[in-house]
């Protein structure tokens, strides 16, 4: 069994996007009471905990990732008492609760920034990143915002520019200022004292910037661009050497870990969007004195062949040392995996094997709401687009609304999410994949996920064992998970064609109760389309 203090190590964390999970108040927007009402469902998936995207006080220009009060709940989602009730219910079900922390930037409505922008001499004048214009009045350097345009906005009161890596309404906190750093640590202590079990850290490599404000160099012609933004975005044309992932970040992560260590059993998972994401993941999670886990965009992008997956695993293992990854194939920022990876595959069978592969990797897993249903990306018409990112880069990039539409609980009115028209439209294709439709079908994606995660819990090697890749042919992905108790060979056919391979290992017995069907004669293994095999080997 897993140690209670290291529950996260190999744990499966279910990500909930509060606006779109369940509306308990009839206003078209999901809320904390709605989440609490569905925690029994979450527990039934056999996951270890939940991660809640932001529910803090916010003007919602970036839907909660622009925080104006780090220590309170936005009335849209309920009250602090509602959160405490959610926490109590989750813990009673054996679920851990992790919450988002967006500390690299605030909302322009935050009291800190309101004070900081008044003049250059106030107590918080240096809590944000301010810089003088160039002599011709242009921004201090060439840094770009991920959401489009320069990463600098001029403020007439201070006659200076302020830095924002995202929207102009999301000014960057100056982490070179020790008081600002400590204030953010104190905000996290507030939630730890309430009893949360950990944090998902938004843009964890964005905390520090180059104090000299040097220009970023361009991406050399023919070299790969960052995975942290769509290719249509000019942000990908730069090498992000000076605006993010600065060496000073490591020292702050050690301070953060010291805080977490005061609360045994808590954990952190950092989001890394970087030109060299796996290197950064290894740097930030190795040594046991920084982040517990991190995830990158390597499995949140379009490449997904067996050879690509082998490359990602090999590269991480080469870099990792004792670093611990957290893998995800979908979240609130990217096209759903059933469409991004599975568009040309069987829409029912492919998600099953893809998720089984995800659950079998060495590391922890984040499972995004609706992924257990095999939901495809929703088609949101331009007139209903809410995401500011999508409005800027339309039509080449339609934004993130397609993965944020309401969770389909039933095939009835508004998919059982709300009695009224919700903030984003219900995708009609999701109705046939609703929870109520899938509950009674033992072979549905929902029940296949439950079965696979239950199977995983009975095989300790699948959540804490080492991983060694094995050669099972170009079209298959194979690896061995091994700990002191067992040695499990895992083989995945992520294609629509039958595949065959000859195993080099001696099979002791085939494992079952995972829901997949394969055939083996001696060491010759045959995998029909979209199937997986799990075997105890010598």
Automatic annotation (TrEMBL):
GO BP term, pick one: oligosaccharide catabolic process
Highest taxon of source: Bacteria
Entry annotated with the keyword Lyase: no
Glycosyl hydrolase family 13 catalytic domain: residues covered: 15-404
Pfam families attached to this UniProt entry: Alpha-amylase, SusG_C
Gene Ontology terms for molecular function: alpha-amylase activity
Keywords attached to this entry: Glycosidase, Hydrolase
InterPro entries in the cross-refs: GH, GH13_cat_dom, Glyco_hydro_b, O16G_dom_2, SusG-like_C
CDD domains from the UniProt entry: AmyAc_OligoGlu (cd11330)
PANTHER family noted in UniProt: ALPHA-AMYLASE FAMILY MEMBER (PTHR10357), NEUTRAL AND BASIC AMINO ACID TRANSPORT PROTEIN RBAT (PTHR10357:SF179)
Family: Belongs to the glycosyl hydrolase 13 family.
Name the UniProt record assigns to this protein: Alpha-glucosidase
């Amino acid at each position: 069994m897993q140690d209670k203090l290291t529950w996260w190590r190999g744990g499966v964390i279910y990500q909930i996007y509060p606006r779109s999970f369940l509306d308990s108040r009839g206003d078209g927007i999901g809320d904390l009471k709605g989440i609490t009402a569905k925690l029994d469902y979450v527990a039934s998936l056999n996951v270890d905990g939940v991660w809640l995207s932001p529910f803090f006080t916010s003007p919602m220009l970036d839907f909660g990732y622009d925080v104006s009060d780090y220590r309170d709940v936005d009335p849209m989602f309920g009250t602090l008492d509602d959160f405490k009730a959610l926490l109590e219910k989750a813990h009673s079900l054996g679920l851990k609760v992790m919450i988002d922390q967006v500390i690299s930037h605030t909302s322009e409505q935050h009291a800190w920034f309101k004070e900081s922008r008044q003049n250059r001499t106030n107590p918080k004048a240096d809590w944000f990143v301010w810089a003088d214009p160039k002599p011709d009045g242009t921004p201090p350097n060439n840094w770009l915002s991920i959401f489009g345009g320069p990463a600098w906005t001029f403020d007439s009161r201070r006659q200076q520019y302020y830095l924002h890596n995202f929207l102009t309404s999301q000014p960057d906190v100056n982490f070179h200022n020790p008081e600002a750093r400590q204030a953010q640590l104190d905000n996290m202590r507030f939630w730890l004292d309430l009893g949360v079990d950990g944090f998902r850290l938004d843009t964890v490599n964005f905390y520090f910037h180059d104090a000299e404000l040097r220009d970023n160099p361009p991406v050399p012609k023919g070299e790969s661009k960052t995975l942290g933004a769509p290719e249509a975005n000019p942000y990908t044309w730069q090498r992000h050497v000076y605006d993010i992932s600065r060496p000073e970040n490591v020292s702050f992560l050690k301070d953060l870990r010291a805080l977490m260590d005061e609360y045994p059993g808590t954990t952190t998972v950092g989001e890394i969007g970087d030109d060299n994401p796996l290197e950064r993941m290894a740097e930030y999670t190795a040594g046991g004195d920084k982040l517990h886990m991190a995830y990158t965009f390597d499995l949140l992008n379009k490449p997904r062949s067996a050879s690509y997956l082998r490359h990602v695993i090999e590269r991480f293992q080469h870099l990792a040392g004792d670093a611990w990854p957290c893998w995800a194939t979908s979240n609130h920022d990217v096209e759903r995996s059933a469409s991004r990876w599975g568009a040309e595959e069987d829409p029912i069978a492919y998600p099953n094997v893809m998720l089984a592969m995800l659950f079998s990797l060495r590391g922890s897993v984040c499972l995004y709401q609706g992924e257990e249903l095999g939901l495809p990306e929703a088609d949101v018409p331009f007139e209903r687009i809410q995401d500011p990112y999508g409005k800027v880069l339309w039509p080449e990039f339609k934004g993130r609304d397609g993965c944020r539409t309401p969770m389909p609980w039933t095939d009835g009115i508004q998919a059982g999410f709300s009695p009224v028209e919700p903030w984003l439209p219900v995708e009609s294709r999701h109705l046939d994949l609703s929870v109520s439709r899938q509950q009674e079908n033992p072979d549905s994606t929902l029940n296949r996920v439950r079965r696979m995660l239950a199977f995983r819990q009975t095989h300790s090697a699948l959540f804490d064992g080492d991983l060694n890749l094995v050669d099972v042919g170009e079209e298959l992905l194979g690896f061995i998970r091994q700990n002191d108790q067992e040695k499990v060979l895992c083989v995945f056919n992520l294609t629509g064609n039958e595949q065959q391979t000859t195993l080099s290992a001696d099979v002791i017995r085939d494992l079952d109760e995972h829901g997949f069907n394969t055939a083996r004669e001696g060491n010759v293994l045959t995998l029909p389309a979209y199937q997986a095999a799990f075997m105890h080997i010598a």
